[in-house]
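The instructor's notes for this session suggest beginning with a concrete chain rather than abstract definitions. Hand out the sequence below and ask the class to guess, before any prediction is shown, which regions might be ordered.
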Amino acid sequence: MTEGLIIDDNRHTADALQQMLGLLGLQARVAYGSAAAMAILASVTPQFICLDVNMPGVDGIEVLAYIRREPRLTKTPVVVITSDDQAETRQKVMRGGAQAMILKPITIDALESAFKKANLL
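After discussion, reveal the predicted structure:
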C-alpha cells in the first residue's frame, strides 16, 4: 500500500485529510507542522506528500524547496493544500515543483482529482 506524508500545522485539517486519503485507498502519516515534517523527511522517503502552504516558521513553499533540493525526494509527488488562492502563491507552488494544488476546504472529489493528476491513483 502507498504511504505518504501529510504536512499541516492544523491538526483537524491533517487528521481529516488522512481519513479522506484512507477512503481513496491511500495511507499517510501526519507531521503537524514543518519542524516535525523536516525531522521525518530526514530519514523517510514517502511515496507522496500533501503539503500545507501557510504554516508558522518554515512555510510550505520553503518545505517544497527543500524537498526538490533533496536528491532522494526530488521525484516524490507533492500535492499542495492551501486556503491561499492568490495567483502569486499558485505560481510559486507550481514553479516549486508541486504536481497539483487543492484549495481548502478540501473535498474528497478535489482530492481524488488532484491525486489522479499527480498519477497517484
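Then share the key points. The first helix runs from residue 11 to 23. The mean pLDDT is 94.
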